[in-house]
Every structure is written in C-alpha cells, then in structure tokens.
Design brief:
single chain, alpha/beta, Rossmann fold, pyruvate-formate lyase- activating enzyme, six-stranded parallel sheet, 18 helices, binds cobalamin, binds iron/sulfur cluster
C-alpha cells in the first residue's frame, strides 16, 4: 500500500541562503599579504544578529576559492545571495552576482555595505541585484532577509544608536583559512599576525566614525554617527576571546580614529591595564593635530596601555598639500608627533622596553601636488625613526568629496571591473606616475637627502625649545 502524502502537511523547506564573503580569489589560500586575510566585521555582526534571531545562512568566501569556476560551483543551489559590498570589493561582488543568476535564475540577491551608500548608481546598474540596502543594517537585516518581498528595490537601512547595542560578534561565523599551511598560522577564529604584534590577533572596533572631513575620506558624510562601545564591554570581549580561543597575543583596533573622545580614552587608560587578562600590545590610529592637542594623554596611552604601533595619517609633509586635502593638520603637527614618539621610544629603550613604532600613512600623487611637495613628504618619511611607512598613490574613492569631484570630472581611472586599490596602481588621469615610481625607486634621493641635515638641525632647535619651556 502507498502512503498518501497530503500536500498541505508537507513542510516547505527553508530557503537556502548564502552570505558570500568578498575578497580577491586565493586570499584565504595563499595570500599575497596579511591584511587580505582580515575578517569582515560587517559580515560578522550581521550574521551574528541573523543567527541569534533564527535566520540561518551558509557562508563561503571568494577568498577561499582559487578560480571563478570554483565560485560558480559553490553558488549553485541557493535561493538567496547576501553580500557586504565596499567599493574595493565591488568588482568581485559584481561578477559573483552575474554568476549567481546564471546558476540560480530564480534566486534573489540582497546587498548592503558602503558601496551601496556611496555609489548607488553603480549598484542599481547591476540588474542582477534585487535589493540594495543603503547605510547601516543591524536593525533591518532580520526583517529584510526573512521577507525580502516586503521591501522595495532600494532600502534605507536602520542602525543602532550606539555600539553598546551590538551583540558580541560570533567569530566562528567568519570564514576559515582554506589551506592547511595557512591554517597553521592563522589562529582562526582569531586572526593571523601581520608584523605589528604577536599572534593570535584580535581585530576589533571601539568606534565607528571619524568626525574629520579630509577630502579623500570624510566618512562622516556617509556613515551615521553612533555611540562608542563602552570600555568595559571591549575589555570583557577581549577577556572572553582570550579564554575561549586564546591565548590572544595582540590587538588591531580597526577604528578609523581611535585617538578621539578623551573621556573614553581616559577610561581606557584607567581600566585596560587593570582589567584585561593581559595588557596586550595594540595597533590603533590617531591624528597628528590631536596628539599635539593632548600630548600627555597620548604619552600615557603609549606607556601604560601598550599602544605600541601608532598609525598616523600624516599623508603629506607639505602644508600646501595638507591644505588641499583639508587634513586640518600642519607640517608642524606632523613633526611634533614624530618627535614626541621618538622621544618616548628613546626613553622606553633606555628602560629596556620595546619602543613604539609608527605605522605611517602617506599619500603621493594627490592632484595639485608638486615635485617639491613630494620631496618634502619623502624627507619627512626619512626623518622619522622607527617607522613602518605605508605609502600609496591617492585613490579617488566614491563617497569622499575629492573622489566624487574627480569621478564627476571624468578623471578617475577606477572602474567596476577593477577598482584599482593596490598602492602603486594608476588611479587618476593627468598624474605623472612615472615620476612617483622613480621617486620611490630612489632616483631623487640626493635631492631629498640634501634637505635632511638642515631639517634635523631645525627640529633639534624646536625640541630644545620645548625642553626649556617644560
Ligand atoms: C576594517 C577596515 C578595513 C580592513 C578590512 C577587513 C575586511 N575584510 O573587511 C582592511 C584594513 C583590510 C581595510 C583595507 C582597505 N580599506 Co578599509 N576600512 C575598514 C574600516 C575602518 C572598518 C570597516 C568595518 O568593519 N566597519 C564596521 C562594519 C560593521 O560596517 P560595514 O562593514 O560597513 O557594515 C555595515 C553596513 O555597511 C551595513 N551592511 C553591510 N553589509 C550589508 C548587507 C546587507 C544585506 C545589509 C542590509 C546591510 C549591510 O550594515 C553593517 C552594520 O551597520 C572602514 C571605515 C569604517 N568606519 O567603516 C574602512 C573602509 C571601509 N576602507 C576603505 C578603504 C578605501 C580601504 C582600502 C582601499 C585602503 C587602501 N587605500 O589601501 C583598503 C583596501 C583593502 C583591500 N584588500 O582591497 C574605505 C572604503 C570606502 C568605500 N567607498 O568603500 C573605508 C570606508 C575607510 C574610508 N573612510 O575611506 N579596510
Ligand atoms: S583620513 Fe583619517 S582623520 Fe581624515 S576623515 Fe578619514 S579617518 Fe578621519
């Protein structure tokens, strides 16, 4: 006898949803550098929220695949594709969307992320994409993924008022390294070391938005402001990760601007050394003008909280260029910061401690920059001791004031097939990249070095002045 199956009692199977982590092919197999392996906090946060609300997603990473054929295989059989698209991952997202619809013609594609906010026209032009969420997603993601049909194609996201409302990211929802050789050093779900501090590395965010308005960045024009994560929550999470997945070796604080909001920093200064399982060394970012504004606080953080890789967006060693990019920092602010950290480092070395180093962000090829400006910048780099220079050619990112302007003028060389984002890619029409390549190759070293003794002598004078006043 046949058992009768009543259609109304057959439970529909839940939709198969895939969150695709984006990045260059192979970056989780055989990466070209350590930063390519870092995990995506947007994906981590939103998948944590989804799973805590019973909306389950599978996940794999384009970074874990070696070929587009492999991506195609793995995209097959899903009802929904979800992606966090930043401008620098737009080319990968664009290609994945096309393949997804080829292998799942009835599937639905839902995207959010920075690129949806800053370059909506590029996103809407990809007809394969069904739903595009602009802005933050934490308070909309569950409803959107559960019932996408209830939303229009373009959706305004809803975020939390404060990072205090964010759940702790479930780091086991992040992609794993996809080769045993890489896995050995990865410390998953902690992250691999990159030369800034010992493994396992914890990347974290304590704040979301930098309030300044540098024209190549100005993220506060497109990321809504939100309260900083309370100090105790940050420390509790670190201690938890150390217990569960540790030992933790060092931290990378991904905040665009860690050294802001002195009352938060004072609380960090007071509590981190006392309440953390260990005073883990960390990488975090500041600005030269605020270091000059709050030098005691800066020095105390370096000495007492083990802030031992100090990322400063110096960008340029020339006041002319600093004004062009509205950095609101001067050459003098830059040199003040360089000298201060140098002095603290010398003192720590005398005490047998490891001195702090600069991760020094420098941009070349900014429209309007002259050769002399570039020489001044390279002279500043050479003057700085204990420095890890991070030099790149200026890139006109959408969302930033200067980026938007250059894109509108047709001068950007970035395209949806290739958002040039490697430091030495050519990114803007009319820039003499040959000169910059030669500059970096040392062709103009004599010119740069010629000004160095004079600069050092000048700075020494300023330094003795400062001592006399102290
Ligand atoms: C951490 C970080 C990195 C890490 C990224 C690691 C990784 N795998 O993600 C590293 C250090 C590698 C990195 C590198 C670069 N970065 Co970066 N980075 C950041 C930073 C500081 C934080 C990103 C983050 O985690 N934010 C927190 C999470 C929660 O936010 P989110 O991902 O945007 O997700 C939220 C929303 O977008 C939305 N959302 C996201 N996905 C989805 C999906 C759906 C369906 C929905 C509904 C919503 C939604 O909801 C989330 C919660 O609100 C941001 C600045 C910032 N304040 O955000 C810059 C930023 C993203 N980076 C930027 C840039 C330019 C770069 C570089 C190109 C810099 C350079 N010149 O080298 C490189 C490129 C690297 C590469 N490999 O190509 C720009 C991007 C600009 C743009 N237009 O996209 C930013 C905004 C900084 C800036 N102000 O210029 N970066
Ligand atoms: S470049 Fe740095 S200081 Fe300027 S707006 Fe961006 S994060 Fe802030």
């Amino acid at each position: 006898m046949f058992k009768k199956l009543w259609p109304q009692t057959a439970k529909p199977s839940p939709p198969r949803r895939l969150w695709l982590d984006l990045g260059d092919l192979g970056d989780l197999v055989n990466p070209s550098g350590p930063h390519e392996q870092w995990q995506d906090h947007g994906l981590g946060l939103l998948r944590t929220i989804l799973h805590q609300n019973g909306v389950m997603t599978d996940m794999f990473s384009t970074r874990a695949c070696r070929t587009w054929g492999e991506v195609r295989q793995r995209l097959r059989g899903y009802d929904m594709l979800i992606m966090n698209v930043r401008s620098y991952t737009f080319p990968v997202a664009y290609r994945a969307a096309k393949i997804f619809k080829e292998v799942n013609p009835n599937g639905l594609i839902v995207v959010g992320g920075m690129h949806a906010t800053v370059a909506l026209d590029e996103m809407t032009a990809v007809e394969e994409i069904d739903k595009i969420c602009q802005g933050p997603g934490e308070n909309i993601i569950v409803d959107l993924i559960r019932d996408p049909a209830a939303f229009p194609r373009i959706i305004l996201g809803v975020g939390a008022k404060s990072m205090a409302d964010w759940p702790m990211i479930d780091r086991a929802l992040w992609p794993k390294p996809a080769a045993w050789k890489l896995a050995r050093k990865f410390n998953w779900p902690l992250e691999p070391e990159c030369g800034w501090g010992p493994p396992g590395v914890v990347t974290l965010l304590t704040s979301r938005v930098c309030p300044w308005q540098c024209v190549f960045c100005n993220e506060n024009s497109y990321i809504p402001n939100m309260g900083r994560r309370p100090v105790e929550m940050v420390i509790d999470e670190l201690n938890y990760l150390d217990r569960k997945y540790g030992p933790v070796g060092s931290l990378v604080i991904h905040d665009s601007m860690f050294f802001q909001n002195p009352s938060w920093l004072e609380e960090w200064l007071e509590k981190y050394p006392r309440q953390a399982n260990k005073v883990w060394p960390y990488w975090a970012a500041g600005r030269a003008d605020t270091v000059r504004q709050w030098p005691q606080l800066f020095e105390a953080l370096i000495r007492e909280t083990n802030w031992n890789t100090v990322s400063i967006g110096f960008e340029s060693g020339s006041d002319r260029v600093l004004r062009i990019i509205n950095k609101e920092c001067s050459e003098e602010d830059n040199y003040f910061t360089i000298d201060l950290l140098g002095r603290i480092g010398d003192d720590m070395e005398r005490q047998g401690k490891k001195p702090p180093v600069f991760w020094s962000n420098i941009m070349l090829g900014i429209p309007g920059e002259t050769r002399d400006d570039a020489f001044k910048t390279m002279r500043m780099v050479k003057y700085t001791r204990r420095i890890m220079p991070s030099i790149s050619f200026y890139a006109p990112y959408p969302g930033s004031a200067l980026g938007n302007q250059l894109i509108a003028e047709g001068k950007s060389l970035m395209s949806k097939e290739n958002y040039h984002r490697f430091p030495d890619d050519e990114k803007v029409k009319g820039i003499d990249y040959k000169f910059y390549r030669e500059l970096l190759a040392g062709k103009y070293d004599a010119e740069i070095n010629r000004g160095l003794p004079e600069l050092a002598a000048q700075r020494r004078a300023v330094y003795s002045d400062a001592l006399a006043k102290a």
